[in-house]
Design goal:
Elements (H helix, E strand, L loop, with lengths): L2 H17 L6 H20 L4 H14 L4 H17 L2
Helix pairs in contact: 1-2, 1-4, 2-3, 3-4
Protein backbone atom coordinates (compact mmCIF):
# COMPACT_ATOMS: atom_id res chain seq x y z
CA UNK A 1 0.00 0.00 0.00
CA UNK A 2 1.30 3.49 -0.78
CA UNK A 3 2.08 5.89 2.09
CA UNK A 4 -0.82 8.15 1.05
CA UNK A 5 -3.24 5.23 1.16
CA UNK A 6 -1.79 4.21 4.53
CA UNK A 7 -2.33 7.75 5.78
CA UNK A 8 -5.91 7.79 4.51
CA UNK A 9 -6.52 4.47 6.23
CA UNK A 10 -5.04 5.74 9.51
CA UNK A 11 -7.16 8.88 9.35
CA UNK A 12 -10.23 6.70 8.92
CA UNK A 13 -9.15 4.67 11.97
CA UNK A 14 -8.69 7.86 13.98
CA UNK A 15 -12.11 9.19 12.99
CA UNK A 16 -13.65 5.83 13.87
CA UNK A 17 -11.91 5.82 17.26
CA UNK A 18 -13.18 9.34 17.95
CA UNK A 19 -16.75 8.23 17.28
CA UNK A 20 -16.53 5.48 19.90
CA UNK A 21 -17.54 6.16 23.50
CA UNK A 22 -14.27 7.06 25.22
CA UNK A 23 -13.23 9.06 28.26
CA UNK A 24 -12.15 11.95 26.00
CA UNK A 25 -13.59 15.30 26.92
CA UNK A 26 -15.37 17.25 24.19
CA UNK A 27 -12.56 19.78 23.65
CA UNK A 28 -9.99 17.01 23.20
CA UNK A 29 -12.25 15.18 20.78
CA UNK A 30 -12.78 18.43 18.83
CA UNK A 31 -9.03 19.08 18.76
CA UNK A 32 -8.31 15.61 17.37
CA UNK A 33 -11.06 15.93 14.77
CA UNK A 34 -9.65 19.29 13.68
CA UNK A 35 -6.16 17.79 13.45
CA UNK A 36 -7.49 14.93 11.30
CA UNK A 37 -9.26 17.44 9.04
CA UNK A 38 -6.03 19.46 8.71
CA UNK A 39 -4.08 16.35 7.73
CA UNK A 40 -6.73 15.41 5.16
CA UNK A 41 -6.62 18.92 3.72
CA UNK A 42 -2.83 18.83 3.40
CA UNK A 43 -3.01 15.41 1.80
CA UNK A 44 -5.63 16.48 -0.75
CA UNK A 45 -3.74 19.65 -1.65
CA UNK A 46 -0.27 18.07 -1.57
CA UNK A 47 0.84 21.04 0.49
CA UNK A 48 3.55 21.03 3.12
CA UNK A 49 3.25 22.24 6.67
CA UNK A 50 6.36 21.80 8.77
CA UNK A 51 4.40 22.37 11.97
CA UNK A 52 1.82 19.67 11.28
CA UNK A 53 4.06 16.79 12.36
CA UNK A 54 5.07 18.80 15.43
CA UNK A 55 1.42 19.28 16.37
CA UNK A 56 0.71 15.57 15.97
CA UNK A 57 3.75 14.72 18.11
CA UNK A 58 2.77 17.26 20.79
CA UNK A 59 -0.72 15.79 20.91
CA UNK A 60 0.77 12.32 21.13
CA UNK A 61 2.91 13.32 24.12
CA UNK A 62 -0.09 14.76 25.97
CA UNK A 63 -2.04 11.51 25.61
CA UNK A 64 0.73 9.07 26.51
CA UNK A 65 -0.44 6.81 29.31
CA UNK A 66 -4.05 7.99 29.13
CA UNK A 67 -5.18 6.82 25.71
CA UNK A 68 -2.83 4.09 24.40
CA UNK A 69 -4.87 3.34 21.27
CA UNK A 70 -4.94 7.00 20.23
CA UNK A 71 -1.23 7.35 21.00
CA UNK A 72 -0.47 4.39 18.73
CA UNK A 73 -2.56 5.89 15.91
CA UNK A 74 -1.03 9.34 16.34
CA UNK A 75 2.47 7.86 16.34
CA UNK A 76 1.80 6.04 13.09
CA UNK A 77 0.30 9.23 11.62
CA UNK A 78 3.39 11.24 12.60
CA UNK A 79 5.69 8.64 11.02
CA UNK A 80 3.71 8.64 7.77
CA UNK A 81 3.55 12.43 7.64
CA UNK A 82 7.33 12.53 8.04
CA UNK A 83 7.83 9.97 5.29
CA UNK A 84 5.55 11.94 2.95
CA UNK A 85 7.18 15.26 3.82
CA UNK A 86 3.85 16.79 4.79
Amino acid sequence: MSPKKDLTSLLAELREALEQPTPLDESTRDELQALAAEIESRLENDSEDETLVDRVEETLERFEGEHPQLVALLGRLADLLNSLGI
